Amino acid sequence: MATVTIGLPSEIKQGERRVALTPSAVAFAIEHGHRVLVQAGAGEGAGFPDQAYAAVGATLVDDAAKVWGADVVVKVKEPQESEQAHFRPDLTLFAYLHLAAEPELTAALVSSGTRAYAFETLTDEHGLPLLAPMSEIAGRAAAIVGAAHLSAANGGSGTLAGGAAGVPPAKAVVIGLGVAGTMAARGLRGLDAHVTGVDIDLQRLFDHHLDGTVDATQVSEPELVAHHVREADVVVGAALVPGARAPVVVTEEHVRSMRPGSVVVDLAIDQGGCIATSRPTSLGAPTYVEHGVVHYCVTNVPGQFPRTASAALSAAVAPKLLRLADDVAAGRAGTPQESTVLQGALNVAEGALAHAAVADAFPDQPVREVR
């Protein structure tokens, strides 16, 4: 098998301190016969110093352009505008892309001829193995930030999640009980908030009602959602359609009906958001107020816990990356013959969209055989 060069650049998105591969994962790739270029400082924010990468055989590089010159580039967040200058036809990119909410990035990938594989659309028999670790962390974080922003000091209503003797707890509504929503619900319930879980899947609602994840369940129907949102102190949006733009479940009118100082946390913001009044925010400026409601719509929530998030992501990504590198070496990348371990991950190839949900979001872009 031919050697493939893998590039690990530093993340440049505001507030992003994660790294896609830990030193142990880099060692795994090198043992597998590949060369790894690591941009100096790439792991520092997550607690993995340059020396740790050098010790396992990585080549440290100061210049980002040299790292982006690798055969395969693996990173955490979608390439920022300045990074798009590195796109080229013989580049294979592996990262969180969220293309349905990124028209400019999508157009840049298509026009460049870069092959782009998305962590968030890779599927297996268990679901979305590269999205799940970050969804778990984002969900846990949502409970923390949602409760924290209810405090008057953070612009909230001054409501304590768990209430007090003689005072009812805060009411929380979680929209979508996938991995992120389930962890948010568990966290809020652990703070003694009263949690209502909303989903379109009756079996999922049944399971979570029985296992105690939530206090109450509600099928997702507009009028019923409106009622629960109106009464909520905290709403966590976690509705997901893999690869597609998130469905808007909470309308602007729903938000307008909420009490002043209530909080919404939109974990679907990477895919456009499932709350109509949501717009992307950063870890440096995480909130804004609209209709009297505090909005937390950070697009990289797990980035504030970089050591935990990097370790979890790296463990999930590393074996998939090695299979992708093998396919690149064998000339199978982007073809029907590539490994089924990468099922659903290919989003862009040969100057066209290659994933059905992404293609649906951009009917003006060329489409190849979608998988």
What are its keywords?
single chain, 371 residues, alpha/beta, Rossmann fold, seven-stranded mixed β-sheet, 15 strands, 16% strand
Structure, explained:
The protein is globular, with a radius of gyration of 21 Å. The two termini are about 25 Å apart. It folds into 2 domains: about 5-120 and about 305-360, NAD(P)-binding Rossmann-like Domain (Rossmann fold), CATH 3.40.50.720; about 130-300, NAD(P)-binding Rossmann-like Domain (Rossmann fold, 3-Layer(aba) Sandwich), CATH 3.40.50.720. The chain contains 11 helices and 15 strands. It has helices at about 25-30, 50-55, 65-70, 105-110, 130-150, 180-190, 200-210, 220-230, 250-255, 305-330, 355-360, and strands at about 5-10, 35-40, 60, 70-75, 90-95, 115-120, 170-175, 195-200, 215-220, 235, 265, 285-290, 295, 345-350, 350-355. Helix 6 (about 180-190) links the parallel strand 7 (about 170-175) and strand 8. About 30% of the residues lie in helices and about 15% in strands. Helix 5 runs parallel beside helix 6 (about 180-190). With about 375 residues, the protein is of the alpha/beta class. The strands form 2 sheets. Strands 3-2-1-4-5-6-14-15 form an 8-stranded mixed beta sheet, sandwiched between helices. A 7-stranded mixed beta sheet has the order 9-8-7-10-11-13-12, with helices on both faces.
